[in-house]
């Protein structure tokens, strides 16, 4: 096989792929960043189910596998697959695309929590600063506390950071936008505070995938995603992602994490990898639509709540809804927020109903919103949060906006409010 990168890699003459220094935009890379890993003439990727792969026939080409992780400086060299716990064709293609879209070399894991666990295992921090975040991430932090005494301090309490000795090798972890409100936290500020102390900053960016924000531009060292949400986008796969800032890759983090993943065994299955590639092709289209839909719905609800608008529509909304929360309503903070989220705000927002009973009943009145947990799929979801989070305000509904027409979603909510009013 030709190893000169200027030559077509494959016997069928596939031209050289976009390189990692490519000037193609994300929309193009989502379709083509994995071209070089297409080892057949198929246009749609093949699904490879083999767990094991033949070694090179030529004895001179035999390189013992564990000595050499795939070259971390180039996403476009097809890995010589050996065994699917190391690498496999479908997940390699997924990682090649993710590395381009996230602007940092990426590794995938079985789920978002598997990725966060892998991060904690790799960094082995003595102290972690963490604020409001996915309850499972807090669960993992507790697990690590029990395993080896990881100290946990509040993200917004710098005095507590210093009292706990947060410093070199420690971790500041922020989720933004944050579950369940969709409100954002300033990444740049936390990056500076962490780096000043020699600690690193990880950002759980699940709620605002590309093209909404790039946490590396704001100083993040690690960007984490639950790929089960927007990256997958169709509510049909579990996936976790860690992407690394280029300086951290140069320090050997990617190789280290790759070697540890081999031991943790938390690799995605090939079907999930295949589904992930299918999904990323349309990431930008989906997310821009979802973000726009959410901003319009929030604007509509917020306008009726705040503006004292006359008429039946305003009266129905004000009777049912007490408050709406979303990054687009963080009025006082638009300076850093516009810079941090240049592509638009996240497609998740929170509705606080006027009573817990109304929150519990609204989902049953809706025709277009499934009543279910999770988020990020093409279909709109609404969840009475009390179903999956015991500590939460019982008036809270979390909305994950899909790609339907926003006017239809608006009308569905409105008829839901009307149906509730009619029951009284
Ligand atoms: C869902 C979610 C996770 C966990 O991801 P899984 O893929 O379900 O393991 C972590 N963080 C956030 C913000 C999430 O929404």
Automatic annotation (TrEMBL):
Entry protein name: Cystathionine gamma-synthase
Cofactor(s) the protein requires to work: pyridoxal 5'-phosphate
PANTHER family found in the cross-reference section: CYSTATHIONINE GAMMA-SYNTHASE (AFU_ORTHOLOGUE AFUA_7G01590), TRANS-SULFURATION ENZYME FAMILY MEMBER
SUPFAM superfamilies attached to this UniProt entry: PLP-dependent transferases
Keywords recorded for this protein, A-Z: Pyridoxal phosphate
Superkingdom of origin: Eukaryota
Pfam families registered for this protein in UniProt: Cys_Met_Meta_PP (PF01053)
Chain segments carrying region Disordered: 1-23
Species, as recorded: Coniosporium apollinis
Family label: Belongs to the trans-sulfuration enzymes family.
